[in-house]
Request: fold
Amino acid sequence: MSTPSVLYDAPGPRARRRAAVGGAFASVVGLILTGLVIKRLADAGQFSGDLWGPIVNPSNEDFPAVWNLLAKGVQATLTAAALSITFSLIIGGVVGVARMMLGRRARMPVVALIELLRGLPVVITIYFASRVLPELGVDLSGLPGEAGLWFLVIGLTAYNCVIIAEIIRAGVASLPGGQREAALAVGLTPGAAMRLVLLPQAVRVMLPALISQLVVILKDTSLAAVLALYTELLRQGNLIALNLHNPIQILSVVAAIFILINYSLSRLATWVDQRSIRTTRPRRVEPAPANVS
Reply:
């Protein structure tokens, strides 16, 4: 016997039949559209060896240079993403805890900052960092890497740290209220209760949303190509396509690389979540054997 769901009523035979028919119809339409797109591309010569040769043919004279530039683009993207993720997690954690720990009046500036940055498109924060900070006399030349890297990191961090702060706040708010009360009852300060009791439990609750936001950060590094700030993977692909005149082929490879990286990050998050469940699951204690006299 199947266990009934507590979230929704199980669909009946008629609903399952409608869903099957609708799914089959959507699949057929998708296959037809895919076939039409492939046919149009083939008619336009987009599958010719001259266009795909620099990507898939090692004997092509442009093959080493193309993959060398793509590798540099991947490295630049991962560098910007790693720095943005690190700073966003640190600053977002501080901002999220501050919003929960401060009093009503004291946290008003924090709330105002969160609402301001949440309402801005991320491309605006990156553009603001690249155009306004130099006008204010902020010199980033002493930092390792090019200035465009740090403008991108600052813009991504400014936007994503407040999103992560809200994820942390929602994760802590989802816990039962008795957790905090029990921590205070045994003598912990509010700060210690937050650090030792609430945040460790909230991590598992907010892990899916947190990983999704980290994937968004990695994808948003491509916005640097729009502003021509930093030669990351997408801009590198655009430069290659301009020289080889094969944008569809190069950008398809760039999209596949982004999908592979994001899928790997999602699988890593799933592995971490499953491992944390195994490590926190209580072990079964076997009863001691009875003494036989």
Summary: The mean pLDDT is 84. The chain has one domain: 56-274. The first helix runs from residue 13 to 43.
